[in-house]
Amino acid sequence: MQPIISVQNLTKTYASGLQALKNVDLEIRRGEIFALLGPNGAGKTTLISIICGIVNASSGTVIADGHDIVRDYRAARSKIGLVPQELSTDAFESVWATVRFSRGLFGRPPDPAHLEKVLRALSLWDKKDSKILALSGGMKRRVLIAKALAHEPRILFLDEPTAGVDVELRHDMWQMVRGLREQGVTIILTTHYIEEAQEMADRVGVINHGEIVLVEDKVALMRKLGRKQLTLTLQEPLSRIPDGLEGLPLELSDDGGALVYTFDTQGERTGIATLLRRLADHGVDFKDLHSSESSLEEIFVSLVRGNA
After folding, report:
1. Do 77 and 191 have their domain in common?
2. Inter-axis angle of helices 112-121 and 137-149, to 10 degrees?
3. Which residue of 50, 59, 139, 141 has the lowest C-beta tally within 10 Å?
4. DSSP characters over 40-93
């Protein structure tokens, strides 16, 4: 299947000399939720802005749903909806006028039924006649999403969509995004909330210093780079790890009451049986044990540090 977005050799150098993007290659699959992660200043917003036609690239090409974003700008842009990070809309317009204007801006014929459907899905229908000025921050965020969906795009960019919104609204948005994906909309999400990517994404891309560090299926990434830890709560605290156990990947908790054993999820053998046998040989007894796995956040931090 052809990717819905294809980015090739994309670079961006600003007049100040800052190179925001360095030969970026990226393909987004049709119908997926793709999470783009990276620290502040990594190039996330620049990349999105170029794909959406807001910023000009220094070199490279971008194809959006079969249309070159430079040579066939109008057709490409009509396929794309963008929910920007900043809350920017006409404060004195009503919600209804705002979304109606946004649809017309892309040359789409009036369709009150579609706009009503969008506003109802975002719990905005009872606010349709309210001025933007009178809405809460969370409601203004919903209006931005409604504007982005007004012209029925097949690609939706969400740039930090839940920044500064409460947990309830965040989960409402996750539910809405899943519904859009079921309708065939491809969604590209940038976020500082790693749990958002872990909850939502099919694939994860990591960008740092203007370069794509990694693109991987989320589950495969966590399986490949994740670590598992076995925590053994001891019967008696230890002051140090006993001689003869130093070669094992063991850490003693600060209070000496637990040993933490780290092992590779991809290894043929975990080494747990050997660990338990050697602990018994050294008279180390435990009363409880439990295992845990790396989160996407821990994997992300290790990737960014490794690329620093």
Report:
1. yes
2. 140
3. 59
4. TTSSHHHHHHHHTTSS--SEEEEEETTEETTTTHHHHHHTEEEE-SS--S-TTS
Q: What are phi and psi of 289, to 5 degrees?
A: -150, 150
What's the residue count for the chain?
A: 308
Q: Tell whether 298 is covered by a domain.
A: no
- Domain end among 222, 238, 260: 222
Residue 259: C-alpha distances to residues 28, 162, 284 (Å): 43, 38, 10
Cα diameter, the chain:
78
Determine the 3-state secondary structure of 172 from DSSP: helix
Split the chain (308 residues) into runs of 10 and give each run's mean pLDDT.
Answer: 92 93 95 88 90 94 95 93 78 92 92 94 92 87 90 92 69 82 92 74 88 83 67 85 79 84 64 80 81 61 62
Same domain, 122 and 63: yes
Pairing outcome for strands 5-13 and 155-159: unpaired
**For residue 16, what are the domain limits?**
5-222
Q: Which residue has the tokens 């109606």?
A: 100
Where a domain ends, among 177, 207, 222?
A: 222
Q: What's 240's domain CATH number?
A: 3.30.70.1560
